[in-house]
């Protein structure tokens, strides 16, 4: 790890220790005393001043001190997990005087348009029996990013394999040494609902929600993930979008940058009586750092109707459209060394269209029970036309061009005058119900959550051959349909024994799937066929976690759970109509650690983890690169440590200025095949070390300066630990690299409009590096990108 960030972090930590505890504090603070429905103090509740955005969390006595609010008359919104938010109007704060307000919750929470995996309240997070990661709204807003990868790699234990497509449009996320290819072994959710093409049979992330419309990100890697499925191996990543605001609110973001990047986003909403509304629209386009042009349009509508306290119905609609020159084809080693920004196949074309709709209802039954029902349906089209090519010249075959150096065996790409289109359409429908009930027996508190889900998915997969690179005449080569039905049930009870919380849970997953081939090559010639096959898999998945709250400031936790992922349908059922009888991917996941929040603006967490796979399947997917020849990887072992420490001097001293810093580390000494042909070898794309350093300064006048570094250790690109790079770029070690980003912004108030101009430089050092050798050759990491823009809030 570079010495500079470490020394700077130590210097900033030292300044915190030397900071006077008697530092001046604003006298014109709001003191909010928060009580639960029983009239008891409620730690962790969050208080927000609507007009100014100032906020604070209640301490162990249920007291929230909101500092820095100017004199005036304000509106407060107080929220807490599982409770209906309380709006307090007309709170008067006079100059140089503190105002004390008491807020009492009366009803269980029902007004939500999404399902949380973690929740926002500090007290709730302290009781979670496992490691969690939160990327909050302020961190997302202040990063000025257009790429979700930048934020996700900040979470300890998360590794991102970058490719050259549109920024963040296709996530490749691995957790704790798991294969990052298309995030197959991570459960990806948006507002608690599935995102993948087909959650059971093809959980690939060829579509990812644009980071511009995400309010916060939740990451769970422990036993709490069994409440969500079907993937329970690597963990859960939940992308949360904004709810309708209490008061009228709007925002417009404008960004211009290198490589013709242009981003325009507008969003806004309000609540009038029983009806809440939020709408957002996004337009993002650019030439791409590797001449991979793209254009993205995205629109979202969320409504919430609350006819009475404890009852709500919400509707969410989303439409997404992407056109890009994305390609699987990477660079050869000679091409990367001479022209790292080259794109040998500029006519490759990917079209992704997605329509999504969900209906979510909540009913509070008394003050202890909440019943929720969700229904969803979404369809995704992924049409990808790619130019045909050869790695070596085939005698008698004509080529339209050659990229690379033919003098180096394997160092050239021979491009043909034909192309193939992989046209896939997916339809997913599901209904899910959850019941949450709180009660106390014999001094033991219970928070029970139980439910079930029925999900049906269908994949229509066609391969079309074209006699030209652009245009031409099509010929249908392959055609098949893959339907599947998944049924799941789950139950978890959080038992509270004074300062100890024990959380046992159980999940049942059953998936029945089929493959119906309508057309395939027979003797090398496409022909109509009728080949049908089917299979099913079912597993019972236990989990248990323990959290010991040593005090209001520290928690020790431990947990274990059974990891599960169903086999991909195309892997389990052959094109000859045979079932390979592949079992599900299964693992035992263990972790133990502690989290500590000694004071406002400071925190630390450390977690040790171990994953034992009894059967890890490495799918034969083209996107996987050099690991695609293996289907059943057998046993693998993973073990390591995650840690995070950070502070914010402004929050610690309750002032508006001061430094802040964050250090997040992952050490993964063990990530290897435990049996089979590759026993003892390290898993591909599982670096031993990753680190993220964030430092910055809140300056007077509402300005801020930030810098962050992402450190990624060396990693292999294949199963046999090949260190020397091949001429075609598909295998060889991926060397350690450090990428710096810097950003600066200021807040300027103009009447009712808050203007926030900014400048952000991604890869500020201009590092040219190999980010990946998959899917098919060297994928350079993003080059230096300079963005300028402004955010208008009103």
Description:
This protein has 794 residues and is mainly beta. It has 7 helices and 40 strands. The strands form 6 sheets. It has a 22-stranded antiparallel beta barrel. It has a 5-stranded mixed beta sheet with strand order 8-13-14-11-12.
The count of β-strands is 40
Shape: globular
Structural class by sheet pairing and helices: mainly beta
Task: Compute the number of helices.
Answer: 7
Helix content: under 10%
Mean residue pLDDT: 87
Beta content comes to over 45%
Biggest sheet statistics: 22 strands, antiparallel, barrel
- Provide the gyration radius in Å: 26 Å
Unreliable segments (pLDDT under 50, ≥5 consecutive)? 1-27
Blueprint of the fold:
Elements: H1 3-18, E1 30-35, E2 46-49, E3 55-57, E4 63-66, E5 72-80, E6 83-93, E7 99-104, H2 122-126, E8 132-135, H3 137-143, H4 148-152, E9 158-160, E10 173-175, E11 187-190, E12 193-194, E13 216-220, E14 236-240, E15 249-257, E16 261-272, E17 275-286, E18 294-308, E19 311-324, H5 333-338, E20 349-365, E21 369-390, E22 401-404, E23 412-441, E24 444-466, E25 474-497, E26 500-522, E27 525-551, E28 554-565, H6 569-572, E29 585-596, E30 602-615, E31 636-648, H7 649-653, E32 658-673, E33 689-699, E34 703-712, E35 737-745, E36 748-750, E37 753-762, E38 770-772, E39 779-780, E40 785-793
Parallel strand pairs: 1-7, 11-14
Antiparallel strand pairs: 1-4, 2-3, 2-5, 5-6, 8-13, 9-10, 11-12, 13-14, 15-16, 15-40, 16-17, 17-18, 18-19, 19-20, 20-21, 21-23, 22-23, 23-24, 24-25, 25-26, 26-27, 27-28, 28-29, 29-30, 30-31, 31-32, 32-33, 33-34, 34-35, 35-37, 36-37, 37-40, 38-39
